[in-house]
């Protein structure tokens, strides 16, 4: 169980026809093309204004462009701290290896490095919370602005850049569909 987010592409005229009919059969007959899938990437919900489970939510080109821009800016901020985080992780992994049979000693030796990592993350977390906040919900996944969030940003840039490059927004409609 969890938050599954699908992005699909469909012909605009067909989509509008299905919306007017508003029947399950009309939606089932749509020729849908998979454009992207995200698992527990809950920051997409508030960004796109998605509120209802299982509803079809149209997405506009300008929204996708804005999301890609925000994700790239956040990745630039992350790049400023990634080397510092890497150095702290080396130290933590070193002590985990040396004290793998002595958890108390490992925890004691790692504590200052983990604390330093928390401090290093703070500027990124602050900017991310302002620019692309996460959403809480049952089975929605983590709300932390750490490694998984950064990986999700990279996926967003890749997937949505492809959507922008391959979609004719005069003919096609992108929509999102969530299930949790």
Could you characterize the architecture of this molecule?
This protein has a four-stranded antiparallel beta sheet with strand order 2-1-4-3. It is elongated, with a radius of gyration of 21 Å. The protein has one domain (4-179). The mean pLDDT is 93. Helices cover 59% and strands 15% of the residues. Helix 4 (61-98) runs antiparallel to helix 5 (103-131) and helix 4 packs antiparallel against helix 6 (147-166). With 180 residues, the protein is α+β, with helices and mostly antiparallel strands.
Can you tag this structure with a few keywords?
alpha+beta; four-stranded antiparallel β-sheet; 6 helices; single chain; 180 residues
Number of separate domains: 1
Helix coverage percent: 55-70%
Largest sheet: 4 strands, antiparallel
The helix/strand class is alpha+beta
Total helical elements: 6
Give the distance, in angstroms, between the N- and C-terminal Cα atoms. Answer: 7 Å
> Which ranges are low-confidence, i.e. pLDDT below 50, for 5 or more consecutive residues?
none
Radius of gyration using CA atoms only: 21 Å
**Shape type:** elongated
Element layout with pairings:
Layout: E1 4-11, H1 12-21, H2 24-28, E2 33-39, H3 44-48, E3 56-59, H4 61-98, H5 103-131, H6 147-166, E4 172-179
Helix pairs in contact: 4-5, 4-6
Summarize the structure.
This protein has helices at 12-21, 24-28, 44-48, 61-98, 103-131, 147-166, and strands spanning 4-11, 33-39, 56-59, 172-179.
